[in-house]
Design goal:
alpha+beta; 30 helices; coiled coil; 1318 residues; 4-stranded antiparallel sheet; extended
Length: 1318
């Protein structure tokens, strides 16, 4: 106990670590009813402290100890925030980084608590007994709790067990998380350190042990600058050493000469803090330099061993606790930037947790107070009304009283005013008298002044004469003094020279004496040093002999002790290993028996299920065979319907003239429509720019709204704090402190930031204005250049149209001449009787041929059928059946066509070839072939309609959509082999004969199909709305270029089964804006673009982030059609019709699922078009053309293409070979591996089979639910190993074979290893 100097306070220190005060003031003694003893600052722990942890987001630290209390301290204000007493001791404690949750380990369980405003509240209890170590991860999503020799890792917010970490043979003493929270390190009394990978289900990564040592602390460090990331462990224990372990090896160790209990490493790895835990010794803190060099600085902290050490996240504070019950807080000096700088870092959070009950109580109190306020308002209003009545009465009395007084005062005023007038008249007379006397006095003064000036002038002249005389006398005296002074100076110079000579001689003598004394001193010093060195050598030799003898004795004794200790340790280890082996073998035997029984049951059930599936597949195959038979019958009906359709077409001919007249009008309207489209394109560009500006303004408005909300919240907080401040207005000192706190809180913190925000806003506005002006100037320049090029392009286009029109007229004239010549030849033929006999003979031969059974087709036709059936049989399970059915139809078509051909043309196919109207000289396409057959009536013979498409595909052996003369001559060989017709000789070109008027049959133009018809056809065949997008990806744009050439478009049309001329459709699409998906199906293209934009805006990042956050938050890897339509309609606000088109396009194989890899199509959709078009324009503008091209070079003005440049544009040569083009950016886009059709097929089929693998794995896991958790984990690892990704030939198996192979691999994994030993 002690008394203050003023004798007003007594300080008391208790044995329970408490500091109390007692007031001796008489006033306090009179007021105090109870005991006046109170804590000096706050209450402290009354015993050793076991647990310590610090919060990241708040300035709080938590402790627990033997006094059964858990305390929350504010280390910034140095105050106790909260204290709660429990019925039992708390062994360990952990603080969540957010400051809202605590973990406290008791003797019977671990409690998870919420830190409320005034209390701890338990929300989960975990049955872990005597948990003496628990730690949250750095991110707070996990926490680890020690259960004897096992570490259990839980999820913080769901309390689910992530993994159980085993391996220690004794109690675990310390755990530590790595900085990325992926790994956990631990150590214990068994002398072992382990590193676990949490992401890999707690698999042990590294381990190191030292038997016989009790480790008490461990920390993990990962060097972020190292090329190969590895974790370095630092452990301390009972061996009085600080060890550094990396990759299961001891890299370094330091002897500390004292037992180190706890370790802590600063987050920036600048220093390592260690606490001394020697029993019955004061606990000090050591600060080691990091990386470890052995140097440290020691600070005294505790009177007992150190129990816990923690470092704040911002490295500003160091906390330590000891068995003396003290919590020590150290300030760490700043040698670099701090993480919580006011300008850049994040400050401490001031949020708190409250319960619903607390809010309800506060709300009830608030309502009660509001009710009381209303009562007081009504009471005060009544009192005010009462007082107003009293005041009005008093006012009337006062008004009467003051009106009388005012009248009295008015009368007094009149009297005073009359007196004032009389006094003014008297004052005027007095002023006149004073002015007259003043004038007389002024005149007298002027006369006296003139007399004085005359006297002073005479005196000045006299003084001037005296000054001249004095000046002459001074000059004479000055010259005499100068002469005398020069003589004195000369005498002094002579005396100084004599004294200088004497001093120089004296100095030389003193220097010689000094040199002699220095030599004597050196000799004496050397003699003394020799004597001292000789004595030191003698003493050193004597003590070295003694030290060597002591070291030999020490080494001998230590070796003997080590041998005995090692022998004892080996015996104990061998005994423990034997016992563990016995237990392990018994447990493995029991588990193996249980696993065998479960697998036998699964095998029986699965074999039964496989048999049922095989039976179902066989029924399906039989059904497919029956449907194909029905399809053949329907094909025959189709031939009949085609004939009826042609008859109906003949009825449309009268309308052809009207259609021709309307075509001219349509052409004019199309030109006008093109002008409107160009205007719309420019308007769309302006709209997009305005939309971008609108988005920017909206973002700015949102930012201003957020800023306004923050300012309103700040004003509200300031008002609340100001109201609190006004409560202390009666106490000047408290008022001053509260005003100062307000100034620090609201004035000093935000001035610089506001200035900085203002400067940033000004710079942002300036940059935005500059960019908008630049964009406007570039737009004007682009519009001017585009106008100039548009005029040139229109002129060239008009010239091309006129040339094409002339070419078509010439072709029509040639065809007319050919028909006239053929008519003349028919007219000059032989007599009608010979012709009738020949025709009857041919008909008899044809009847015999048709009645004869067809056994095997000729080899040539079979080859053509197989070649043209490759597309249909690619995914068919019965190719032989389909080919045989097609052969029967083709034989009939070829026979009838050959018969009709020789009936019209005696010279065979060569003569018919010249009569066919062709756009190319050496090739014939399908519309030309069909028109020729209908014109010559070859498509109908003997009442049977010939399929032009089927026959044309048989003749088109190369599958390119055109037929040459040599392929067309196949009909001659067929007639020779089947109809016994002689092979015709080559028809010589005859000169044109004289014209004869022959009436030619009216040609029937084929039906004009539109882009909408083509799109409807694709949607019908490829899954409804959006089917055009799926067909575009699967069959047409297989290279992923975004646009198609004529050859690629023709191949795609044949692949999808388009039965009409693809060249006309190509021209229509090209005129509509290019052969792109947007021209084919603009609704699907617009839906894809809108989905991509909305997804990027929603996720504020790439599509991968949108997939992980909104489409597949569970991480399943795929999303079904139902989920896609339902979730995306709510998330993005897009209609389900547009979403259905997007899903159909992204699901090319019609599996009903979409994976993340399919979203890559949205990123590349139409993105390569701008690149390819700009690159082509730039090649043409620069005069570069590929080798072998003959295109005319077009010189474009500079600036048309913007800043787009090719990396090989500076090459001096003007031509590029195929190899050089392939390595160019355009070539890399065209020949990229992911654009090939084969790679696309692999991706699509891998997607579908991945879902099948996942289904099979999940079904097997469901069968194993009756087993333990460990068995399910083992089963999942087996699945990952057995059903891993295979090479490409594994994914093209049928479904039933897939399931058979899957079960076989699962039941017999050794066969898989033998099949693929690599």
């Amino acid at each position: 106990m002690t008394v203050s100097p003023s004798e007003e306070t007594v300080a008391i220190a208790t044995g329970g670590n408490q500091l109390l005060t007692f007031s001796l003031s008489p006033t306090d003694l009179i007021k105090a009813e109870d005991s006046a003893v109170e804590h000096a600052l706050t209450s402290f722990h009354s015993g050793p402290i076991f647990g310590l942890d610090v919060c990241v987001r708040k300035p709080l630290v938590v402790t627990c100890g033997t006094d059964k209390t858990v305390r929350i301290w504010n280390f910034v204000d140095k105050t106790l925030e909260l204290c709660k007493v429990f019925n039992e001791e708390a062994f360990s404690v952990a603080f969540h980084p957010s400051g809202f949750h605590l973990i406290v380990g008791f003797a019977d369980k671990v409690r998870l608590m919420n830190l409320l405003m005034e209390d701890f509240r338990t929300y989960k209890e975990i049955p872990i007994k005597a948990c003496r170590e628990c730690r949250f991860s750095h991110g707070g999503q996990f926490f680890a709790a020690v259960n004897s020799n096992t570490i259990q890792v839980y999820k913080t917010y769901t309390c689910e067990v992530v993994c159980n970490l085993r391996g220690h043979q004794s109690k675990v003493k310390a755990v530590c998380w790595t900085t990325d929270d992926f790994k956990l390190v631990s150590t214990g009394q068994d002398g072992a350190t382990y590193e676990y990978d949490i992401l890999k289900e707690g698999r042990r990564v590294s381990e190191w042990s030292q038997k016989g040592t009790n480790f008490t602390s461990i920390i993990a460090y990962t060097n972020p600058e190292a090329a190969q990331q590895s974790t370095t462990l630092f452990v301390a224990g009972s061996d009085k050493m600080l060890k550094e372990v990396q990759n299961s090896q001891l890299n370094n160790y330091l002897e500390s000469n004292a037992t180190l209990g706890q370790l802590a490493l600063a987050p920036t790895a600048r220093a390592l803090i260690a606490g001394v835990a020697e029993p019955d010794m004061p606990g000090s803190l050591r600060c080691y330099t990091f990386p470890l060099t052995g140097d440290y600085v020691e600070y005294q902290a505790h009177a007992a061993p150190v129990s816990r050490i923690r470092i704040a996240w911002d490295e500003l504070y160091l906390f330590s606790t000891g068995d003396d019950g003290c919590l020590c807080i150290f300030d760490i000096k700043k040698t670099g930037p701090c993480k919580r700088d006011k300008d850049s870092g994040l400050g401490y959070a001031d949020e708190i947790l409250v319960t619903r009950q607390f809010l309800d109580e506060k709300q009830a109190v608030l309502l009660e107070l509001e009710r009381k306020v209303e009562e007081l308002d009504s009471r005060i209003a009544f009192q005010l009304r009462h007082r107003d009545g009293l005041h009005k009465e008093k006012m009337a009395e006062m008004q009467e009283k003051y009106s009388e007084e005012i009248e009295t005062e008015r009368r007094k005023f009149e009297v005073l005013r009359e007196e004032k007038a009389e006094m003014e008249m008297e004052n005027e007379e007095h002023i006149k008298t004073l002015e007259e006397s003043h004038a007389r006095y002024l005149q007298g003064q002027q006369e006296s002044f003139d007399q004085k000036m005359i006297v002073e002038d005479q005196r000045y002249k006299k003084l001037e004469a005296d000054l001249e005389r004095e000046k002459q006398e001074w000059e004479a005296q000055h010259s005499a003094l100068l002469t005398e002074h020069a003589g004195v100076i000369e005498q002094m110079k002579q005396d100084a020279e004599k004294i200088q000579r004497v001093n120089r001689e004296t100095m030389d003598r003193i220097i010689k004496e000094k040199e002699m004394a220095f030599k004597h001193h050196q000799e004496t010093l050397a003699q003394l040093e020799q004597d001292a060195d000789r004595e030191i050598e003698e003493l050193k030799e004597m003590y070295e002999q003694k030290l060597a003898q002591e070291k030999d004795d020490k080494v001998r004794l230590r070796g003997q002790a080590g041998i005995h200790q090692k022998h004892h340790h080996d015996l104990n280890t061998e005994m423990m290993k034997k016992e563990e082996e016995v237990k392990t073998k018994a447990e493995e035997s029991r588990k193996a028996e249980e696993k065998i029984q479960g697998l036998v049951k699964d095998k029986d059930s699965n074999e039964k299920e496989i048999k049922e599936r095989d039976k179902t597949i066989a029924d399906k195959e039989q059904r497919i065979f029956d449907l194909k038979k029905q399809n053949q019958e329907l094909e025959k009906f189709r031939f009949v319907l085609d004939y009826k359709i042609r008859e109906l077409k003949a009825q449309i001919d009268p309308k052809t003239a009207d259609i021709a007249s309307m075509k001219t009008q349509t052409q004019a309207m199309e030109d006008e429509l093109n002008d409107y489209k160009r205007d719309l394109a420019s308007i769309a560009l302006q709209i997009s720019q305005l939309q971008m500006k609108q988005r920017a303004l909206q973002e700015e408005i949102k930012a201003q709204k957020r800023k306004l909300r923050d300012d309103l919240a700040l004003i509200k907080r300031f008002k609340l704090d100001l109201s609190d401040c006004m409560e202390t207005i009666a106490e000047p000192k408290a008022l001053k402190e509260s005003v100062t706190a307000l100034y620090r809180k609201y004035v000093q913190g935000g001035a610089k930031r506001q200035d900085l925000d203002t400067d940033m806003q000004k710079e942002y506005n300036r940059q935005r204005d500059y960019l908008e002006k630049s964009v406007d100037s570039l737009k004007r320049k682009l519009e001017k250049d585009s106008q100039a090029h548009r005029i040139d392009n229109m002129r060239i286009m008009q010239e091309n149209v006129s040339l094409i029109r002339e070419i078509n007229d010439l072709r029509r004239e040639i065809n007319n001449l050919k028909h006239e010549r053929q008519a003349q030849e028919l007219a000059n033929m032989g007599s009608m009787q010979s012709n009738r006999a020949d025709l009857e003979r041919e008909l008899d031969m044809q009847k015999e041929e048709m009645e004869a059974p067809v056994t095997f087709p000729p080899p040539d036709l079979e080859t053509r059928v197989v070649a043209n059936s490759r597309l249909e049989t690619r995914h068919n399970e019965f190719p032989e059946l389909l080919i045989s059915a097609s052969l029967a139809v083709l034989i009939a078509n070829a026979t009838l066509t050959s018969l009709g051909l020789f009936k019209v043309y005696k010279s065979g196919a060569r003569q018919a070839w010249e009569d066919v109207p062709r756009a190319w000289q050496t090739r014939m396409n399908f519309p030309e072939f069909a028109h020729w057959m209908q014109e010559q009536a070859i498509s109908r013979s003997r009442g049977f309609a010939v399929s032009e498409r089927c026959l044309f595909d048989a003749l088109d052996l190369n599958g390119i959509g055109t037929v040459t003369l040599q392929e067309f001559k196949f009909l001659d060989h067929w007639a020779h082999k089947r109809l016994k017709k002689p092979l015709p000789e080559e028809v010589q070109q005859k000169p044109p004969q004289q014209e004869r008027s022959v009436e030619l049959p009216v040609t029937k133009p084929p039906k004009k199909n539109t882009i909408k018809d083509f799109c409807s056809f694709l949607e019908t065949r490829f899954g409804g709305p959006g089917g055009a997008g799926r067909a575009w990806r699967v069959a047409m744009d297989v290279k992923g270029n975004g646009a198609l050439t004529l050859f690629e478009f023709g191949s795609g049309c044949r692949a999808v089964g388009w039965p009409h001329d693809h060249t006309e459709m190509f021209k229509l699409m090209k005129a509509a804006g290019g052969v792109k998906l947007r021209a084919l199906d603009p609704e699907t293209a617009e839906a894809l673009v809108r989905f991509k934009e909305e997804a990027e805006v929603k996720s504020r990042g790439p599509l991968q982030e949108f997939w992980a956050e909104f489409m597949d938050p569970g991480g399943t890897g795929a999303i079904s059609r139902t989920e896609f339509l339902k979730d995306m309609a709510v998330t993005l606000g897009i209609p389900k019709e547009s979403l259905a088109r997007v899903f159909t396009t992204l699901d090319p194989t019609d599996t009903g699922w979409v994976s993340e890899s399919e979203l890559q199509y949205l990123q590349t959709f139409e993105s390569c078009l701008d690149f390819a078009e700009k690159e082509t324009l730039l090649m043409v503008a620069s005069g570069i053309q590929c080798a072998g091209s003959k295109e005319q070079k077009i010189q474009l003005p500079a600036g048309v293409l913007g800043d787009f440049r090719l990396p090989w544009q500076a090459v001096g040569r003007k031509t590029l070979s195929a190899e050089e083009l392939m390595v160019s950016p355009l070539g890399r886009q065209l020949w990229a591996p992911h654009r090939s059709s084969r790679s696309f097929q692999y991706r699509a089929l891998e997607n579908s089979h991945m879902l099948k693998h996942r289904w099979l794995c999940s079904s097997v896991e469901d069968r194993c639910l009756f087993k333990s958790h460990d068995s399910v984990q083992t089963m999942r690892s087996d699945h990952n190993r057995l059903f891993r990704k295979k090479r490409n030939d594994f994914i093209f198996r049928t479904s039933h074979e897939f399931y058979r192979k899957g079960w076989h691999k699962y039941l017999h994994p050794e066969d898989e290893e033998e099949e693929h030993p690599s």
